[in-house]
Amino acid sequence: MLDFLRRLYRSILLPAFGVALLTFMWLAVAYQVRQEKLTARHDAVLHSQSLARTLAEHTNHLLRQTDHATQLFKLKYEETDGRLRLAEFSRKNGLLDSLLPTKLDLPLAILNSDGHVIDSQNGYFAPEHKHTPFFKSHASNPADVSLVSTPVVDSRTKKWQIQISRRLNKPDGSFAGVILVMMDPAYFVEDYDRMSIDPGGAVMLISRENGMSAARIDDQVIISDSIDFTAVQASNGEANEELQLKRRFDAIDRIYSSAELPRYLLMAVVGSPTESAMAHFERRRSVYYIISIAASGMVLLFVYLLVRQAYRLRRTASMVIEAQLMLRAAADASLDSVYLFKACRMRGAQREILDFTIADLNERGAQLMGFRSDDIKGKRLIEVLPDLHSQGFVEKYRHVLESRQPLEEEFEVDFLPNRAVHWLQHQIVPITDGVAVNVRDITSRKETELAMRQNQAELTAVNDASPLGLLRADATGHCTYVNRTFELITGLTREEAMGDAWIRAVHPHDRAVLQAALGHMAETRVPYQDTLRCVHPDGMIVWISFKIAAMVVDGQVYGYVGTVDDITHVRKSVMALRESESRLRTIADTLPAMVAYIDAEQVYRFHNLAYEREFNRTGTTVLGRTILETMGAERHAFLEPYVLRALAGETLTFEEDDNSDATERTYEVVYIPQMDEDGINVIGFHVMRQDITVQKREKQRLLRLSQVDALTGLTNRAGFLQKLHDAMGSARDNGNLMAVMYMDIDRFKPVNDTFGHAVGDALLKAFSARLTHTMRASDTIARLGGDEFTIIMERIHRTDDAAALAAKIVSAMQADFDLDGTVVSISTSIGLTFYRNEDVSPAELLNRADILLYEAKQAGRNTFRAGPVIPPPASNAA
Ligand SMILES: Nc1nc2c(ncn2[C@@H]2O[C@H](COP(=O)(O)OP(=O)(O)OP(=O)(O)O)[C@@H](O)[C@H]2O)c(=O)[nH]1
């Protein structure tokens, strides 16, 4: 509210002053105009009055002259004894002319003593005047006085006239009659031309008795009985000489003044036209008004300018305040340190700058100095931070202030708190008797720049050390950068490669293709890759793999980045590899064995001609297909364990029987895993598949031969051990009980010694035969050597069954052997042992039987010993 009133006061003060000034001025002007108007009017009244007095004097003069004329007539009349007549009296250059102007032609009449007109001229007179007051008066009064009558209206002419009469006496002094002169008031006013009166002015003669008036206005004579005046009251209440028309008789305003003719009861009135009378005043008033209007305009303009200026001043002041607040806020909100330093000068004429005072600063600026702003505001720099002096900063401030040239620079300081080293950027701007200093802490930026420069150096080093040639082009395809490797690969220096020149490095035969591809890439923005040739200045051809891609930001290509890879050696290697592959294929195709390569996904990737011949028998396409697809579910099920082992890294060999056609064939298959370059992961395996049907048969034959005892035809030791191994595995797998007998012919040596080796051999054969007849066909009977035999009995129900059989053998061998006439009697001893699923080896089991045999021998021979007791399986026991 207070603020509103203050603003209202400010806004209306100047206009109110202007209005007051104008009011005062206009009141003064109005007062002056009024005074001048009154004066002018008064002057006009005086002038009119003067004229009226002149008129009155003139009229008076005429009337007096007329009176003199009657007096002169009376004198002459009485001298002539009543014979004088009017013609004589008024003749030219006569008596009358000496008194009155001839042109008046005044009506004259002589009345006798009876009141009859006895002579008259220049007008009509009633013949009889005996009873008129003036006649009676003259008749009765012998005094020589003239009677001036009140204006009389002529009944015939309707004019009013002033009647002047004088008694005529006879010689004896008796009454002789009356001389009568009629005077038209118009004469007084008509003869008024010589009066200096303005056009439109009115000259009047008014009877005070009956109100008749004669007036002249310019050339017009007005006779009226209705013109009447009242006296104008002056401002002080007194009547002045001005008259006011009671009723207007024309359209012209006049200032009327009068002069009385008391003797004749007449009043001379002159009306000066107000317009002309007041013309001078009107002109002055117009001048006053014009000057006042001009002055008012100037005052208004002045006030307006003042108001406007005041408004501008207020606005400027508020803007200054606002600017100060904004500046304060900006300084407080600034991320920079802001200081205002005012110069401290030396006293004296030179006024040299000694130091600066901290006039203002923001909190950040104070923090940078290590203070709070309130603590150092108003202090001198030498007190707050002496280093500013010693480090030359104050000198810089002084230079900026004196040269009025702003200064901006970056520098490093080590005297500020919080950090050992600050990188700062300051701007020093001169202000009034001081400087404004804006300080920005650019330490982090400097560190970033340093890091960036290091990164750039690193990047440049990386680029130069890169095995790839690098090329960068702008949006128009002009090369702007190549690295060192690019120079080495293409044979162009960096300067030579700039712009479009880099394309010169490409072999002329490849340029057209490259340029077309680059044009296509610029349209489609699809990266381009190709193998091209470069030609060095010395003619050397370098094969390169060239790749280039557009750098797109917001849908706009702003450049291209390309790489150049020297693939000359790779290309040679590839060629060599192709040659090697070709050679290997030739070799592989000439091999009788089937060779293939299968990857980790069990997909065929390679096979030789033999493999193709084998698997194309059914028209099957192998390459790119899996084992399952190629071999079918049944064979895949057989092969899969081996495949998985190979893929687990195992080199393995197995036989595969192929009954797909009429002939039964056997293949030896070798899987050799292929490790990756690191030798860690298996990426596939090689397959060597060879038909070994013939070899297998021969082998089986040889095996059989190797496992038969040549003398007896029984299984020999090798066959026995193989069989024992297989039987134990079967018993272990199936939980069956098996038995092993180890037997020896008792006292065989004496037979040899007695009957010779041939008989001994025959005995061995006979023993074998009897043994074969004793045992089941499923039992394996073997001769280990000499007179030692073994029997393997698989899937026996009880140990007793085997023991019974052992007893049966012992018993059977007690009978004599007739060996082509030589009768030999022997016996046999047996060690019998059992096996189901114990963790013993075949050798140990055989040794166990041998020990039992030894026990049987020790027991006197011709018997058996069995052990240990093998419990039945848990399920059976139950
Ligand atoms: N005729 C013949 N004799 C053989 C053959 N192989 C080994 N012999 C003999 O067989 C005899 C084996 O004797 P041993 O078993 O050690 O002794 P033994 O006389 O049977 O005595 P015990 O076994 O203790 O009852 C040795 O004299 C060998 O020379 C062969 O193939 N033919």
UniProtKB/TrEMBL annotation:
Residues annotated as domain PAS: 455-525
Residues in PAC domain copies: 528-579
Keywords per UniProt: Membrane, Transmembrane, Transmembrane helix
Spans through the membrane: 12-31, 287-307
Highest taxon of source: Bacteria
GO MF terms held by the record: catalytic activity
SMART domains, sorted: GGDEF, PAS
Stretches assigned to the GGDEF domain: 736-869
Pfam family, one: PAS_3
PANTHER family found in the cross-reference section: BIOFILM ARCHITECTURE MAINTENANCE PROTEIN MBAA (PTHR44757:SF2), DIGUANYLATE CYCLASE DGCP (PTHR44757)
Family matches, as NCBIfam families: GGDEF (TIGR00254), sensory_box (TIGR00229)
The protein, known as: PAS domain S-box-containing protein/diguanylate cyclase (GGDEF) domain-containing protein
